[in-house]
Structures are given as C-alpha cells and as structure tokens.
Design goal:
With about 160 residues, the protein is mostly beta strands. It is about 10% helix and about 45% strand. A hairpin with a 2-residue loop joins strand 9 (about 135-140) and strand 10. The longest helix is centred in the middle third of the chain and has 4 residues, at about 75-80. The chain starts with about 20 loop residues before the first strand and ends with a helix.
C-alpha cells in the first residue's frame, strides 16, 4: 500500500499563520528614493530592455517592449513621479499586472523582497512631496531610510 499526501494550497487572498501581520514588498529605487510594490502584483523583473517609442503617447509612457511575444507598455516612473532624469539611461523594469494588462515600470534599480510588519505601516507624512502623495499608499520607517509604498493602480491611472 502506498501512502499519498494531499497538497493543500491557501485560497487566493488567504494568509498563512506566519503572514498574518506582515506584508511583502519588492523594493526598488527611483531617484534615490526607496519604494515598495506589493510582491503579489509583480509578474517579472527585467534588466535594460529595447523600448520602442509610441508616437503621441503621454510623456510618462516611455514606449513599449516585447516580453516573450507580448507587447507591454513601459511607464517611466521617474517622469511619472516628477523626479529628474538620471544621467545614465540604464534602467530596470518591474512588470506588473493591472486590469488584465501588463505594464513595465522603469526604475533605477530593484532591491530585495522585504517582509514588513503591517502594523508598522504609517500614513503619508505631511512632508511627502505633493507629486508623490497621490501615488503613495503609506510608508515604512526602516533603519536609516523611508520606504514609500507605491499604489500601482494610481501610478497607472494615466
């Protein structure tokens, strides 16, 4: 007689006992500012890509790129957040899904995946730049720096 084990997976949106009081973020930097995007919304992390400019697109739309045969709109996060352009043109892409479409957020760099205590998340401070307030879903105070949680839906609302 053979023993079998049944694998149970949590229902979508369910949290495990260890995750109850924690949120998980992919960290990235834009103009020297540490930001975070919920890891569940991230589909891919890409290095520098060839981007094709789209005529008459809003200035925040850097163009489009080919991701394994799928055309993905690339959003220049520096421009969207009102940050000056970097001297070097190299950037990384964080691919996210929003309303059934994939978008590539062009960022300066991608850091690590961080698990942060949900209770330590704070509202936006009054000193947060006005350009960032509409795109921030709160902050975390880390040792020595501030992590701004980006509201991906607000960022992509062009």
């Amino acid at each position: 007689m053979t023993a079998t084990a049944e694998i149970t997976r949590p229902a979508p949106g369910a949290r495990g006992a260890n995750d109850e009081a924690r949120d998980v973020y992919v960290t990235l930097t834009v103009g020297g500012q540490l930001c975070g995007i919920p890891v569940l919304g991230v589909r891919d992390i890409l290095g520098p890509q060839a981007i094709t400019r789209i005529p008459l697109a809003p200035p925040e739309v850097a163009g489009s790129l080919n991701l394994r045969g799928r055309i993905v709109t690339a959003i220049d996060l520096r421009r969207r957040l009102g940050v000056a352009h970097a001297a070097s043109g190299t950037s990384m892409s964080v691919v996210v899904e929003h309303q059934g479409e994939h978008y590539s957020l062009l960022v300066d760099s991608v850091g690590e995946v961080m698990r942060l205590e949900a209770a330590s998340r704070e509202q936006n401070p009054p000193t947060l730049a006005p350009e960032w307030r509409g795109f921030s879903a709160g902050i975390f105070r880390l040792s020595g720096e501030l992590l701004v949680v980006l509201d991906v839906a607000a960022v992509l609302d062009l």
